[in-house]
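Usage

Read records sequentially. Each one opens with the input sequence:
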Amino acid sequence: MLTALAFAAALFSQTTGAQQAPGDDGPIMTAGRGAESSSELRLREALAYSNPLPRGAPDQDYPLVAWCDALVSGHVRLGETLTDRNPEDLEIIRLGRLEASDFRSALAVAGPRQTPATRAAAAQAAEAATARWTPLLAQEDEMARSQAFGLFFGLPGRCEHAARRIRNDIATQPATLDEVGLRSEGVDPVQ
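and closes with the structure output:
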């Protein structure tokens, strides 16, 4: 059912574009037509917040962004230890650095608005996420580090939305699936 929702979201945000020639593996447009409309953003946010977070991820946005930053930063550090990086690895590292920079800038902007307890929760979440990478970074076997780098499945979609929300001081609750029209009466698409 979740796959159907993701498919529906993709169709919802798709636009018509130029046709590719058969066999042309050229650039694939994944971001739509440029600027995202507020209704598209609201839909993506509702989907992101409707999905459960991984074990250990904080529920509050500010600590979550710190946790996300620590995870992606650890992945980048692991990739930087590899001596046999291919172009795809280098691109993943580059994109990870950009994502981590975005998370850190959101944390810096929002930090002064947070309570000491929230900042402490963020530090604790970041420390726990960083600790997940420690044994892998200490691994002498480069093949093991390379495999771990290749198996990182990425971050929850909520990370990017939480970063935007704390940066822009958005205090309202995210839209629900019901509010964006994705949940039928009596049917829970997330289960």
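Summary fields computed downstream for this record:
- Residues 1-30 have pLDDT under 50 and may be disordered.
- The CA atoms of residues 178 and 184 lie 8 Å apart.
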